[in-house]
Specification:
alpha/beta, 9 helices, binds adenosine-5'-triphosphate, binds magnesium ion, 23% strand
């Protein structure tokens, strides 16, 4: 078995990852490990680099420094402009499902076509198999009747759930969710949390979830991190991190304006 698929190889390792845009240092020496089959939740104030971190994981952004290991392969060393690297990058990317912060659905496609899109692009599934899989994914996100609707006919929360269905369409090894619960009412947010837990249990998917929702973090995370001003200020097993009472984390959970996290 290649090392990349051994069950002990971490799903993700970041090793000293730094990224700046001009003078704006967004990630500053971030190092962490995400075990296979774990649910890692990253908290952090707005504008602190959480989405940039996700983009580095799938090679949509290249860090200035550091390694981004995905199942043992360094994504940060791959240059999308070089054909050989690009093939490797696409192969690694296929192991990810990504729920973008803004949903990013194709507006000119129906819901069903949106969810089917990755299957059409990346698999040789028959039309009937795709239809069955699309129905399954839409049922899982609680939208069994939305197949022939267009995104513009849906509420923001419904669009988010369609985007989630599309993210899990290829039953990826790692699902990256950028604020899955934002824009959802509390009941729907809880439903999505249950879905993440169910997929984790039944399909063994690894999740990296970015959220501002501390209740969501408590519910689903086995590992919690807090990113603040580009630094990973705390990271570890959920119960340890919550017990540690780190001042920035305490401030975050208490929704307080007093503390180390300052509004710029
Ligand atoms: N492509 C880019 N070019 C220049 N600056 C960028 C780029 N992408 C992100 N940034 C900057 O990086 C910083 C972090 O942005 P990021 O989107 O990661 O924040 P975030 O933690 O996800 O915030 P939020 O919780 O509001 O989504 C911001 O200052 C942003 O302006
Ligand atoms: Mg973001």
């Amino acid at each position: 078995m290649p090392e990349a698929d051994s069950s002990t190889t971490p799903a993700i390792v970041l090793d000293g990852v730094s990224k700046a845009f001009g003078a704006n240092v967004v990630l500053d020496e971030v190092s962490l490990t995400v075990r296979q089959r774990s649910i890692m939740v990253m908290l952090g104030p707005s504008g602190t680099g959480k989405s940039v971190l996700l983009r580095c994981l799938v090679g949509l952004l290249r860090p200035d420094k550091g390694r981004v290991m995905v199942f043992g392969e360094d994504v940060a060393s791959l240059d999308a402009g070089v054909a050989k690297d690009r093939r490797q990058l696409f192969r690694i990317r296929r192991r990810f499902g990504m729920l973008f912060q803004d949903g990013a659905l194709f507006d000119d496609m129906t819901v069903g076509e949106n969810v089917a899109f990755p299957m059409r692009m990346h698999t040789s599934m028959s039309a009937a198999e795709i239809r069955a899989s699309v129905d399954d994914k839409l049922r899982r996100v609680g939208l069994p009747k939305a197949t022939s609707k267009f995104p513009s006919e849906l509420s923001g929360g419904m669009r988010k759930r369609v985007a989630f269905a599309r993210a899990i369409a290829l039953e990826p090894d790692i699902v990256l969710c950028d604020e899955p619960s934002s824009g959802l009412d509390p009941v729907m947010a809880a439903t999505l949390d249950e879905l993440i837990l169910e997929l984790h249990k039944t399909l063994g998917m690894t999740f990296v979830v970015i959220t501002h929702d501390t209740a969501e973090a408590r519910t689903i995370a086995d590992t919690i991190g807090l990113l603040s001003r580009g630094k990973l200020v705390t990271y570890g097993p959920t119960d340890e991190v919550l017990r540690s009472n780190h001042p920035a984390l305490r401030q975050f959970f208490a929704r307080s304006t007093e503390g180390p996290i300052q509004v710029l």
